[in-house]
Design a protein that fits this description.
single chain, 96 residues, mainly alpha, Histone, subunit A, two-stranded antiparallel ribbon, 3 helices, 36% helix
Length: 96
Amino acid sequence: MSLTRRDVENIAHLARLAISEQQLPVYVDSLSKILSFVEQLNAADTAAVEPMAHPLAEQVQRMRPDEVVDADQHEKYQRNAASVAAGLYLVPKVIE
């Protein structure tokens, strides 16, 4: 699939990207190549391929022990706060 200059301009507009006139031909070429590659992938026959339930089928994933390694430092962090009560940050009311 080949994209036109207008297609890339529309994509850039939808994505809120500012693409200069000098960059536009590069994007047209790059995006067209990407879409062509996706078309090649879609052409592959995957009818006989069984979906994987897990990427590590018949393998064991090593796991580390679930241990707390960071100390509780909320008091240290709250020293810099303007106002604190009962371990909570107090902020001014914004919405009535």
